[in-house]
């Protein structure tokens, strides 16, 4: 057992005893009722279960949760799909996903959203040339599987958000 304490979407979660074989996905969905994080393949292949990990150095990464023990997040700060909108206001990225009809069933959406958010934050710190943008988005979203709408609509939505604020994201 591990006494798990972590921060989720900026809020410290009261320490809780968890089995060492409990996955992070089960912890979020079953223990905390945070069902926005999905469970797809269960084998780190589809990335529908992806969340954001905020590192102490100010960088952020994404990680699947289906095969990763909850205990390994002890002391960490993470973000989930539930943490994006503020006071009922969707982010520009969320709005772009809707405007582009980027999803149908929505099963993959939380994973794409978290991945794209990390990309935006990375570009805000280290902008890329316009000529590198398509490849940069492709590489960032690579590995996320969508069975409904395909990938181009997510790609276009992310591109739109970036092109709407070139001074922030482009070199
Ligand atoms: S459910 Fe985790 S990668 Fe598919
Ligand atoms: S919207 Fe259904 S899997 Fe992507």
Describe this structure in words.
Strand 5 and strand 6 (60-63) form a beta hairpin. It is globular, with a radius of gyration of 16 Å. 34% of the residues lie in helices and 12% in strands. The protein contains 6 helices and 7 strands; from the N terminus they run ββββαβββααααα. The chain folds into 2 domains: 2-83, Ubiquitin-like (UB roll), CATH 3.10.20; 92-169, DNA polymerase, domain 1 (Orthogonal Bundle). It has 171 residues and is an alpha+beta fold. The structure holds FE2/S2 (inorganic) cluster (FES) (2 copies).
For the structure shown, list the relevant keywords:
five-stranded mixed beta sheet; DNA polymerase, domain 1; Ubiquitin-like (UB roll); alpha+beta; 6 helices; binds FE2/S2 (inorganic) cluster; 171 residues; 2 domains
Helical content (DSSP H or I, runs of 4+): 25-40%
Q: Strand fraction band?
A: 5-15%
How many beta-strand runs?
7
Number of domains: 2
**How large is the radius of gyration?**
16 Å
Q: Please identify the top-level CATH class of the largest domain.
A: Alpha Beta
The bound ligands are: FE2/S2 (inorganic) cluster
Please state the structural category: alpha+beta
Please identify the oligomeric state. Answer: single chain
User: What does the main sheet amount to?
Assistant: 5 strands, mixed
User: What overall form do the CA principal axes indicate?
Assistant: globular
Order of helices and strands: EEEEHEEEHHHHH
Query: Could you name the CATH homologous superfamily of the largest domain?
Result: Beta-grasp domain
SSE layout and pairing:
Blueprint: E1 2-4, E2 7-8, E3 11-12, E4 16-18, H1 24-31, E5 51-54, E6 60-63, E7 77-79, H2 92-99, H3 109-125, H4 133-141, H5 152-163, H6 166-169
Parallel strand pairs: 2-7
Antiparallel strand pairs: 1-4, 2-3, 5-6, 5-7
Helix pairs in contact: 2-5
């Amino acid at each position: 057992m591990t006494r798990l304490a972590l921060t989720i979407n900026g809020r410290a979660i009261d320490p809780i005893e968890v089995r060492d074989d409990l996955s992070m996905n089960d912890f979020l969905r079953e223990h905390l009722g945070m069902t926005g994080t999905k469970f797809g393949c269960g084998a780190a292949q589809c990335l529908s279960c992806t969340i954001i990990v905020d590192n102490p150095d100010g960088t952020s990464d994404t990680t699947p949760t289906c095969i990763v023990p909850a205990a390994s997040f002890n002391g960490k700060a993470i973000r989930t799909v539930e943490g994006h909108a503020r006071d009922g206001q969707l982010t520009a990225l969320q709005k772009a996903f809707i405007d582009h009809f980027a999803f149908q069933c929505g099963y993959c959406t939380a994973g794409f959203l978290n991945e794209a958010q990390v990309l935006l934050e990375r570009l805000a710190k280290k902008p890329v040339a316009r000529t590198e943008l398509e490849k940069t988005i492709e590489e960032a979203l690579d590995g996320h599987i969508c069975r409904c709408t395909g990938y181009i609509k997510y790609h276009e939505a992310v591109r739109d958000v970036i092109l709407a604020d070139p001074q922030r994201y482009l070199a």
